[in-house]
Amino acid sequence: MGTHDGRKGWINRLAVAKDFRRQNIAFKLVAAVESRLNIIGIDITACLIEPENTASKSFFYKMGYTKSAGGVLFKEAITGRLVV
After folding, report:
1. pTM score above 0.90
2. At the N or C end, where does the chain have fewer CB atoms within 10 A?
3. Cβ distance 43 to 80 under 8 Å?
């Protein structure tokens, strides 16, 4: 689930049922949220992940997210527009 506050997008929940994992579904879901946010002019997407959730952190790092000083993972569109 993705939301925004008018300047920054947030990925609030991301889950894929066990039987459907390893099929790039999570990648496609995140890319779709980023794309839709970018269409409305929001170029920063962030997510807050519990420190012990290494699988989620690893996934978002692979998606290009980086860690901010406050521990939030974020990604900024380089070109100003993401294309999916």
Report:
1. no
2. N
3. yes
How far is the C-alpha of 77 from the C-alpha of 67, rounded, in Å?
A: 15
Q: pLDDT by residue (tens digit) across 39-62?
A: 999 999 999 888 888 999 999 999
Token code pair at residue 76: 């900024």
Rounded CA separation 27/73 (Å): 16
Tens-place pLDDT, residues 1-24: 899 999 899 999 899 999 999 999
On the 0-12 / 13-18 / 19+ scale of CB atoms within 10 A, 34 is buried
- Spatial separation of the C-alpha atoms in residues 46 and 42, rounded to whole Å: 11
CA atoms within 13 A of residue 54's CA, in its CB half-sphere:
0
User: Which residue, chain included where needed, has tokens 């990925």?
Assistant: 11
